[in-house]
Amino acid sequence: MVNGIERPLDLLNNSKGKEILIQLKSGKQFVGTLLAFDIHINIVLDNTKEVEEGHVKTNLGLTFLRGDTIIFVSPASTSMKKEKEE
Hints:
The protein contains 2 helices and 5 strands, in the order αβββββα. By secondary structure, it is an alpha+beta fold.
């Protein structure tokens, strides 16, 4: 167990109300505050921004992302810090 995470969905539970980064199969990336998710990894984000090469491309606000389009989910604070440092 690392950081209280024993199962994959524990990461999402621990990230509720926090900013996460999502990569879609299309190559698009989104950053937003995780509001809700289900067992299919359908995700609802608030204050969503489409990010391209580390820069905000579009502000989308409240957004629903379908789970079968998602490649990965990551706590945004970690991934965005790394991009800013480079």
